[in-house]
């Protein structure tokens, strides 16, 4: 089993920045892909960014140039730096992990975090 614990969410004004962290523990040796999804009220959960153990990054067009995913394998932690936030980024952000990158990319990862709320509002 793998446990994922997110942190770093909160309230930020439009144009501001936040950095999310997700620390993995447990049987982490099997993990390949780690990343982030988000779910806004009344909407389906959607991919934000995913990074594989080899460093390949997949991201949604809506966050291109604004969000950056990074991974510290020594700390078993993945980060999401979010800049130029706008109200449409308001959502619960979920960390995910899976031995299979395809599972992580298609929204069916084996492991999910509990989620952290990000609210962008003036």
In short:
With 122 residues, the protein is mostly beta strands. It has one helix and eleven strands.
Describe the structure.
With 122 residues, the chain is mainly beta. It has one helix at 101-105, and strands at residues 2-7, 10-12, 18-26, 33-39, 46-51, 57-59, 67-72, 77-82, 91-98, 111-112, 116-120. Strands 2, 4, 5, 6, 9, 10 and 11 form a seven-stranded mixed beta sheet that branches. Strands 1-3-8-7 form a four-stranded antiparallel beta sheet, with no helix packed on it. The longest helix is centred in the C-terminal third of the chain and has 5 residues, at 101-105. The model has no long low-confidence stretch (mean pLDDT 94).
Biggest beta sheet summary: 7 strands, mixed
Helix content: under 10%
Number of helices: 1
C-alpha Rg (nearest Å): 13 Å
End-to-end separation in angstroms reads 40 Å
Based on secondary structure, the structural category is mainly beta
Average pLDDT figure: 94
Low-confidence stretches: none
Order of helices and strands: EEEEEEEEEHEE
Q: How big a fraction of the residues is strand?
A: over 45%
Shape call: globular
Task: Tell how many strands the DSSP assignment holds.
Answer: 11
């Amino acid at each position: 089993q793998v446990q994922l614990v997110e942190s770093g969410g909160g309230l930020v004004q439009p144009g501001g920045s936040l950095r999310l962290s997700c620390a993995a523990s447990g049987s982490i040796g099997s993990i390949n892909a780690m990343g982030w999804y988000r779910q806004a009220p009344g909407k389906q959960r959607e991919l934000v960014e995913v990074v594989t153990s080899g460093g390949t990054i997949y991201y949604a067009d809506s966050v291109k140039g604004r969000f950056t995913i990074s991974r510290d394998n020594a700390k078993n932690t993945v980060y999401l730096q979010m800049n130029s936030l706008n109200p449409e980024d308001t959502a619960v952000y979920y960390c995910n992990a899976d031995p299979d990158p395809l599972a992580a990319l298609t929204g069916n990862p084996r492991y999910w975090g509990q989620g952290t709320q990000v609210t962008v509002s003036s």
